[in-house]
Amino acid sequence: MEILVAYLLGILTAFKPKNHYTDRNPYPNERPKTQTPSDRPVAVMCVPPAESDEERTNRKKKERREKIKFRVEIFSAITLFCYFGVTTLIWLTAQKQTTLMRQQVVGTQGALIALASPTWTNETNRFHFVFLNTRSGAGVVTGSIIAFSATFQRESLPDRKPIGKPWTTQFSNEPVAPRGQYEFDQSMPYDIPKTDGANWPGKEGLSIDAHYIVDNGFGDISSEYRCFDWLPPLNLKSPIDNSSTSVGGGIGGPCPHDISWNLTKFRNDLAKGYTPQP
User: Fold this and answer.
1) HEC readout, 193-228
2) Which of 76, 171, 210, 227 lies at 20 to 30 Å from 251 by C-alpha?
3) Is there a domain that residue 119 lies in?
4) Which of 57, 42, 190, 80 shows the shortest CA–CA distance to 127?
5) In whole angstroms, how far apart are CA 118 and each of 99, 128, 137, 156?
6) What is the pLDDT of residues 76-96, one digit of tens each?
7) Would residue 152 count as lying in a domain?
8) What is the count of structural domains for the chain?
């Protein structure tokens, strides 16, 4: 029995119990490295030195100079703005006075050019245009006709449909003296429509579309369109005092022009007893 107990004790002593708590340091022969207080970052607080009296005085002087400089800059900007505004106002006033003076001079001395209704010469089959400088008085300047263009178109009556192609005439750069006129004659490539009194205005008329550009002598340019309807001229004799009146000819006005009023007046005159004259 003792031998068995001794044998079991020998077996138990042969096995070394397992240590559940291992050393955390894998290198037991080396000392663990630890941070000493000298190795840690040190917080440093910088305390500025006390400001001396001289430095305090210089600082206050600098701040005072900065304030004065800022105020001077603001004052300079305001002064410059006011100067610009006053200068602009003076310039605008001067321009307005100059414009008013020029308008007054142009209104009294500038050429006023207008186109009169064209007339027709039976014998030569020509149209006669007259431009008048209607401005009168002392100091009136000479104007000029920069460009003139007139387009003639034969038309059927009373529906006013075009007959054939239009025909154009033109001229440019012609002066018109004060209280003077410029005359322009134009022969036609076809006969002017004619008719007798009984069938007036007949079956054919002529429209004239005119456009002209003029200078009043002061460099002011203006343009105008005028339209004329040429109906064969006819004289009517009054049944009361044998006086005569005429219808037809160059009837003009702003574009487009309407001849219905002239036709109505002719019919009314016939109803009143007016007699067409050859």
Assistant:
1) CCCCHHHCCCCEEEEEEEEEEEECCCCCEEEEEEEE
2) 171
3) yes
4) 190
5) 37, 5, 26, 20
6) 888 888 888 888 888 877 777
7) yes
8) 1
